[in-house]
Specification:
Layout lengths: L1 H17 L5 H17 L15 E11 L4 E5 L8 H17 L8 H11 L7 E12 L13 E9 L12
Antiparallel strand pairs: 1-2, 1-3, 3-4
Length: 172
């Protein structure tokens, strides 16, 4: 019985979430299930299809600068570099990285930088800074040329690493 309720809830939830319609009943149901869907990574935005499809191909990486002047590049998993199985398990990272690069989510940047510092605290010396870098290239309709558009690079956040940031443990 519990499994049936679970399956019916998910089928109904995914169907209502993915419908490109808006009415008061659907909006109320979406608001009710939003925390669970965001937590589980089940959310889907229709911005890939309409009303304005994304016109930019982008990804985010970090540059970790160590106190001795050396650097290390760190990248979120990119779907085009993963196998089909890996994509299945790491899709939520793509969604997170897409959201992280938006100016509206600037409140996430310090926590992301601290996490990246923790993941890279085994370098040649202590970390000094973490730079979040956005790479973007416009998606243009194909004309007679098969040349891809140039990639633009923008450092959109610089974080000074504190000694306690590199320690493992709960995020602040």
């Amino acid at each position: 019985m519990a499994i049936n309720v679970f399956l019916i809830f998910h089928l109904l939830g995914v169907t209502c979430w993915a419908m490109p319609l808006t009415n008061p009943l659907l909006t109320a149901f979406r608001n009710l299930i939003r925390p669970y869907f965001l937590w589980a990574g089940l959310f889907q935005a229709w911005d890939m299809f309409s009303p304005q499809p994304r016109s930019i191909n982008s990804y985010i990486e970090a540059i970790v600068l160590y106190k001795d002047g050396s650097t290390r590049n760190w990248a979120f998993p990119r779907m085009d570099h993963l196998s089909l199985t890996e994509r299945y398990f790491k899709e939520r990272y793509r969604k997170f990285a897409d959201s992280l690069g938006e100016d509206a989510n600037a409140a996430l940047w310090p926590d992301a930088a601290r996490r990246i510092a923790r993941l890279n605290n085994n370098g040649p010396s202590a970390e000094a800074m973490v730079f979040l870098v956005r790479y973007s290239s416009p998606i243009v309709p194909q004309s007679g040329s098969n040349l891809p558009a140039a990639w633009e690079t923008q450092v959109f956040y610089a974080y000074t690493v504190e000694p306690e940031d590199a320690k493992s443990g709960d995020a602040k």
